[in-house]
UniProtKB/TrEMBL annotation:
GO molecular function: ATP binding; ATP hydrolysis activity; P-type sodium:potassium-exchanging transporter activity
Membrane topology field: Multi-pass membrane protein
One GO term describing the cellular component: plasma membrane
PANTHER family, per database record: CATION TRANSPORTING ATPASE (PTHR43294:SF21), SODIUM/POTASSIUM-TRANSPORTING ATPASE SUBUNIT ALPHA (PTHR43294)
Keyword Transmembrane: yes
Ranges where the record places region Disordered: 1-62
Residues that span the membrane, as ranges: 167-193, 199-222, 365-384, 404-428, 891-912, 943-963, 1001-1018, 1039-1055, 1067-1087
Protein name: Cation-transporting P-type ATPase N-terminal domain-containing protein
Source organism (scientific name): Venustampulla echinocandica
Keywords per UniProt: ATP-binding, Cell membrane, Coiled coil, Membrane, Nucleotide-binding, Translocase, Transmembrane, Transmembrane helix
UniProt xrefs under SMART domains: Cation_ATPase_N (SM00831)
GO annotation terms (biological process): intracellular potassium ion homeostasis; intracellular sodium ion homeostasis; potassium ion import across plasma membrane; proton transmembrane transport; sodium ion export across plasma membrane
Basic and acidic residues bias spans: 1-12
């Protein structure tokens, strides 16, 4: 079977499986496949589900054809189980595997949950009777309190954290697992091996390592706690209040305190606080369910059941949806986790966590270091067992051997790295917050720097999500809105009629809180399209100084609200004096395709008069409509007619007459082209992403023409010709098929730009996706949420690091599946939980986040490169010389820990504050599979270059001290073994111990000072310190001086404090050895400057190829 055949066969199988539920009368809750990854949910979810107002509804509207996987699966299978009885026997073999899967009782209950609900089927009175509530009186206070106590708050279920597992991971994860072995060994060396005279030194080391472990655990816990606290501050915004009937009175009640049975009143601008059964409506109530379903079309409310499917019927208002028009009263039937949104939230959270890219890099580094540590420690133990214990029995006893083995562990493990990584993440996360991006998990910060594909929603992300009128059109004149407003002073009759109709035939209203602002800056309540036309008409008529045209002089006498079936709205306005048969101005606004057949005349802009709508005029109108649609504008037609109805106003016959006989012979006033304009920063953001090597794609539910127009405007499409389509993909698939040899396609392929619409996505094979993923510029239009999820998975399967932006419940699967999910702060609770990053303000702040993500990786490399030479390499060699060459131990285990966790760590914090060495956006994204945090080049730089110089210099200072102050040459110390004891060079054992103790402190001080030269060199990978010194403003870093002062202070304290000298065996360092290392530190800096000079001078040479 060929690959395309396999793809089609797999698709057909999936379609059959989706069409037939595993068991009759059963439903599948949630997606049938697990999401690829999940992010850690932070904090306790106690956010009200009704905190938002109408001002934020359109910032979350997603024009997506289709509904999210969870909602779709539920809805579809409910309908199927209600319709299908016994006709699935022939297809049982397709579902055997699913039927045999083990299901818990809880999962089975979830499957039956929505199917068994009958709140939408029963009459409203029967519902109230069942819930023991009077529609007029509502619940009593006592009833509400009792039900709240029994059922809990009206909030989404919180994800339960396994705190025991998390604490154990803090304490025993990473390097800590090996360090605990050291703790146990040092305790054993103290007692019982140290009995009868246990050494306080071993006890002190055990306690010190425990402090190091708990210090690392505390930093890890603190970073998680601070992130959770910040995220909780977003999720726990103050809940809004809702109007409920209690004790016969309409009172304001916190949405958190609503209970089943509450009678709730909601109107335009309110968010539905719980799942409600509608009892009565204003007749024109509409709901925006896009947050839940992904469908942009508004849903009209109803009192009676319209669908047997609970999720589709219109007499139920679902929690989280918005009232965009009218008002209604309903009874609460489901709250909190029992609501539709609550159930979806539970399913979205029921996924496993997977490590992020930076976590994988840290784990890789830990594995490498731990393996090397185990090898070295094992080598020391085996060396003692097989050689030292036999050949030099008095040189090293069991306790000394264990001390050396654990000293090897402590030496080779850079204990400061986990703390340095945590602090780096925290600092950069704070910088991100100042750039209006909140990382929910600090480890996801760096992942954003690896992103090479960014899939962005259109509405509210790339665009302002504020519908505005951009074009005014008549049959014989087309103009921009600015020209139309400036022309208003010339009193053109067609324009004046258009302005007036825009205001009068309108269900939107200005927000009273913003009424004092300029017209175009005001907020509106109601439908977004109505709001755009209201602003347009009001601004124009105010320019004409005719504020009375807003409806005061022509009050509305009758209306037929807009609905999705008729696709128009109608208003009547009484004109003329009162007579037995009143005269009305009828205004109609709606879709051109629906209203045009009912039009017979039109206003001519050029002649300022009404003309007959003949065939040339109709063709002219259709051309205007097509041009506006092609440019991505929504076209609204406004018509008028003067009528004198035969029936009296207010009667049923009057309404029937208007609807049935009067919507004819209409006069076209004009058309309005309405768009959701791109944000000002969008084009710049797209260009910056492209410069950074990130392919920027649009994924939207809007139509292809509209999406393409926006894509060209913001720079997603840069090719001047038409983009490739699914036809070109099909052509590439069948380019070897002779049957299609003479077939022609709409246009020659560009191999750069691609417009792919939802219906074509379902039929793509793996080979097709290979072709799709190779395009540089892609717009996915008319996509459903599950198609968006598939897009993410297909790109990830081809080794791309994918970021996805979203804001609705329907976006949650794709947000979780992406490497980095990015939600808008005004988005749904579920989207915020699923995302890794939250945009707090403008979309262009994501560029700063990408830059900071790359800076994190670069600074982490610098920190590790700084810590390894002294904290690992220069510490392991003293142990090796002691074991294998018999040299008195040049550096004690205690001083090794002080270097790793204190002196080096404080100085490494200065590297966290380093700015970027060059424009990081000019580099391509990091290849996560090849460009590791720690690679051979960094090991070579840290161990074989800087580390080697530091090791030689530190040992040189140790041997120099022994020669100057003890008179013992280095040659005598090598292979000394047990001879370094009583009588060696005429010294007593106590004197030799004192010399060795001071020598160890000299070695320690030397390393501390040598690291000053290391940090000055390591802060620049390529630039010379003369080009990027820490003093001048461009790369100024005052933390370097502060870190050096802190490390010096710690070194002085550790070597001079008498208590530490007594317990841990340190000693005062002669004054000269505080100054001798300074020129050596300068020498390290000079050597690295010479290396950089060679790299810059010969960028293709061997030195450049191995440079880190």
């Amino acid at each position: 079977m060929t690959s395309p055949d396999r793809g089609r066969h797999a698709q057909e199988t999936e379609d059959v499986e989706a069409a037939v539920p595993p068991q009759t009368k059963r439903i599948n809750f949630g997606p049938e496949e697990h999401y690829e990854r999940s992010k850690r949910a932070t904090g306790s979810r106690r956010r009200s589900a009704s905190r938002d107002s109408i001002s934020s509804v359109h910032s979350r509207t997603r024009s997506v054809s289709g509904i999210p996987i969870e909602f779709r699966t539920l809805s579809f299978n409910i309908a199927e189980s209600q319709a299908i009885e016994e006709d699935t026997e022939d297809l049982k073999h397709l579902t055997t595997k699913k039927e045999n899967t083990k299901k818990t009782q809880e999962e089975a209950e979830q499957k039956d949950y929505f199917e068994n609900l009958d709140f939408h089927i029963l009459p409203g009175d029967a519902i109230c009777e069942r819930l023991d509530v009077s529609p007029g009186q509502g619940l009593s206070t006592a009833q509400a309190v009792a039900r709240l106590t029994q059922n809990g708050k009206n909030t989404f279920p919180a994800r339960r954290e396994n705190y025991t597992k998390r604490i154990l991971n803090y304490v025993f994860g990473g390097f800590c697992s090996v360090l605990w072995i050291g703790v146990i060994v040092f305790f054993i060396c103290w007692r019982p091996l140290g009995d009868p005279n246990p050494a306080a030194y071993n006890l002190g080391l055990a306690i010190l390592i425990m402090i190091v472990i708990f210090l690392q655990a505390s930093f890890s816990a603190f970073q998680d706690w601070s992130t959770a606290k910040t995220m909780k501050s977003i999720l726990n915004l103050l809940p809004t209040e809702t109007l409920a009937v209690r004790d016969g009175q309409t009172v304001k009640v916190s949405s958190l305190d609503l209970v089943v049975g509450d009678i709730v009143k909601i109107s335009v601008g309110n968010k539905v606080p719980a799942d409600m059964r509608l009892l009565n409506t204003s007749g024109d109530v509409r709901f925006d369910r896009s947050m839940l379903t992904g469908e942009s079309d508004e849903v009209e409310g109803a009192i009676d059941m319209t669908e047997t499917n609970f999720l589709e019927t219109r007499n139920v208002a679902l929690m989280g949806t918005m009232v965009t028009n009218g008002s209604t009263t309903g009874v609460v039937i489901l709250t909190g986790g029992n609501t539709v949104m609550g159930r979806i939230a539970s399913a979205t959270n029921a996924v496993k966590d997977e490590p992020t890219l930076i976590q994988r890099e840290i784990y890789r580094f830990v594995r490498i270091i731990v393996c090397l540590t185990v090898i070295l420690a094992s080598a020391i133990i085996l060396t003692w067992v097989g050689w030292l214990r036999v050949k030099h029995p008095t040189y090293m006893n069991l306790i000394s051997m264990l001390n050396n083995a654990m000293g090897c562990v402590v030496a080779f493990i850079p204990e400061g790295v986990p703390v340095g990584v945590a602090l780096t993440m925290m600092i950069v996360a704070r910088r991100m917050k100042s750039s209006d991006i909140l990382p929910k998990g600090l480890s996801t910060v760096e992942t954003l720097g690896c992103v090479n594909v960014l899939c962005s929603d259109k509405t509210g992300t790339l665009t302002e999500n504020k519908m505005v009128v951009t074009t005014v059109g008549f049959l014989d004149k087309r103009m921009g809105v600015a020209e139309a407003l400036s022309s208003s002073s010339e009193i053109s009759r067609p324009l004046e009629e258009l302005f007036r109709a825009s205001i009068l035939c309108n269900d939107a209203a200005f927000d009273p809180l913003t009424i004092g602002l300029p017209v175009m800056a005001r907020d509106t309540q109601g439908n977004a399209t109505d709001g755009a036309t209201l602003k347009f008409g009001t601004a124009a008529l105010e320019g004409l100084d005719r504020k009375g045209a807003n409806g005061d002089t022509l009050p509305r006498a009758f209306q037929i609200p807009f609905n999705s079936k008729s696709k128009w709205m109608l208003t009547l306005h009484k004109i003329g004096s009162n007579t037995s048969k009143p005269h009305f101005l009828m205004l109609v606004k709606g879709a051109p395709d629906v209203l045009l057949p009912n039009c017979t005349t039109y206003w001519s802009y050029s002649s300022n008069s009404i003309k007959a709508l003949d065939h040339p005029a109709i063709a002219q109108f259709q051309e205007l409509q097509e041009d506006l649609s092609r440019s991505g504008q929504r076209v609204i037609l406004l018509c008028q007619r003067d009528i004198t109805p035969q029936n009296g106003l207010g009667s049923n016959a009057f309404a029937d007459e208007i609807r049935d006989t009067q919507i004819t012979d209409l006069t076209i006033i004009g058309v309005l082209g309405i768009t959701d304009p791109p944000r000002k920063e969008t084009a710049e953001t797209v260009a910056a992403c492209r410069r950074a090597g990130i392919r920027f794609f649009m994924v939207t539910g809007d139509f292809g023409l509209t999406a393409s127009a926006i894509a060209r405007e913001v720079g997603i499409f840069t090719n001047p010709g038409d983009p490739d389509t699914s036809y070109n993909i099909m052509e590439r698939r069948n380019d070897t098929d002779e049957a299609l040899g003479n077939r022609t396609f709409p246009s020659a392929p560009t191999d750069k730009s691609l417009l792919l619409e939802g219906p074509a996505i379902s039929g793509l094979t793996d080979d097709d996706w290979d072709s799709v993923c190779a395009y540089e510029e892609i717009v996915f239009a008319r996509t459903s949420p599950e198609q968006k999820l598939r897009i993410v998975k297909e790109f990830k399967a081809r080794d791309n690091i994918v970021a996805v932006t979203g804001d609705g419940v329907n976006d949650a699967p794709a947000l979780r599946a992406a490497d980095v999910g990015i939600a808008v702060v005004t988005g749904s609770d579920v989207a915020l939980e699923a995302a890794d990053l939250v945009l707090l303000a403008k979309f262009d702040s994501i560029i700063d986040a990408i830059r900071l993500g790359r800076l994190v990786f670069q600074n982490l490399q610098k920190i590790i490169s700084y810590l390894l030479p002294a904290g690992s390499w220069s510490e392991i060699w003293p142990v090796l010389l002691n074991v294998y060459l018999g040299v008195p131990l040049p550096l004690s285990t205690f001083l090794m820990i002080i270097i790793c966790v204190f002196t080096d760590l404080f100085l490494s914090l200065a590297l966290i504050m380093e700015r970027e060495e060059f424009d990081l956006l000019s580099l391509p994204p990091r290849n996560a599979k090849k460009d590791h945090l720690i690679n051979f080049k960094i090991y070579a730089q840290s161990y074989l270059f800087i580390g080697l110089m530091e090791t030689v210099c530190a040992h040189g200072m140790f041997f120099l001290y022994m020669y100057r102050h003890a008179g013992i040459p280095a040659s005598s110390l090598f292979l000394a073994f047990e001879s370094y004891s009583e009588g060696f060079y005429g010294y007593s054992a106590a004197e030799l111990l004192q010399f060795n103790t001071v020598g160890q402190s000299v070695y320690f001080v030397t390393l501390v000072i040598l690291q000053w030269g290391n940090i000055l060199s390591i802060r620049n990978k390529r630039l010379s310190i003369l080009q990027a010194d820490p003093v001048r403003k461009q790369r100024r870093n005052p933390w370097l001086l502060a870190g050096a002062a802190m490390s010096l202070s710690i070194a002085v304290f550790v070597t001079e404090q008498q208590g530490i000298q007594t317990i841990f065996g340190t000693a005062s360092v002669p004054l000269e050895f505080w100054f001798l290392p300074l020129p050596l530190a300068l020498g390290i800096l000079v050597m690295d400057e010479m290396r950089k000079l060679g790299v810059r001078g010969w960028p293709t040479g061997v030195l450049a190829r191995i440079a880190w």
